[in-house]
Amino acid sequence: MKDYSFLSRAAYFETLAKTVELAARGERVIVATMVFDPTDPAVRHLIDALCVAARHHANVTLLIDAHNFLQNNHGKLGPLFYHGKLRRLGGSFAITADALESIDAAGGRYIITNLPKRRFNAPMVGRSHIKGAVVGNRVFVGGCNLERSEQIDVMATWKSASAAEKLSNWFLKFAEIHNVRQALGDVDVEVALDDGTSRLLIDAGVPRQSLIYDEALQLIDSAQEWIYMTCQYFPGGPTARHLAAAQARGVKVEIDFSHPRSQGNGAPLHYAHQAAQRARGLPRNFFAGKLDKQIPKLHAKVLASEQGAMLGSHNYVMQGVLFGTAELALKALDPELSIKLRDFMKAQLAAFELLAHHNRSARSHSRSITKP
User: Fold this and answer.
1) Which residues pair with 152 in a beta bridge?
2) Which DSSP string corresponds to 203-216?
3) Could you count the other beta carbons within 10 Å of the beta carbon of residue 276?
4) pTM of whole model > 0.85?
């Protein structure tokens, strides 16, 4: 097994910031995200680290998707939605722009990718959902946006000169063209890594086309003993049908997914989605992994079996495929790594479940002693 380490979202921010601060003159520092929120203290610390590296003459590039100026975290539509170009910035959009400009002022650069070609573009269509980083020869791949450090997530990190070169070449091409789909010529791509068992996969963002989703369904269909999946919402549709077929042939299937309450304004849609999936006769145990409503959103995108594992930015469901979303994933046909990743996620979730239990007990005790 290659020496992959797994990081929670908070640990990713901290580890990445420390790694970036140590970048030497001329060393590559490339970070990619879909969502960027500089008001999160952990993200602000990372921005400061990028500025430090830039002032030390590292080659700093931050790739962020245009989504940040189409819509903010509270659903407010932004300048790119209305105008097709950046202007009339205010509120959170101005804060985001100021943070990006601080990197530019320090000697780095930021690139806004996948800009809409017209006004009134749906904020979720044509996005680059890619999250990852390369610092020197260290690579980070996973699901972590640069926002909300409390969310439950995972990044894989390892050192590899060849993997760093391949991923940074992709990222720099996206920076040059400013659009993932155009940079890849509508072709989903993959590269084999030097351990002989792993590959990096990138979806170009063509609607109804996804190499990563095809590979995910293949991993489900090849499982013979067990499957473990995490998703930020219940994975219905074709994914659920493939999982049900796996269980029917004797595979143990476990799915962990966020409580609808964690979805904010989207909660009613997620309640309705789960009800619809139940009505379709999916196995009852598929719904047993719904997290406690007190637990932060589960944002990790993990699919593992005794055959191997995948993690990255893809949710392994059809929604993003229909929208035409650029994605990045690591697939490793390594049973030992698969177990390690599954156990890492279960340990994270167990810690949050324990905290939620303690909080409920504390509130119950508080109410009991305040009753007249």
Assistant:
1) 298
2) E---TT--HHHHHH
3) 11
4) yes
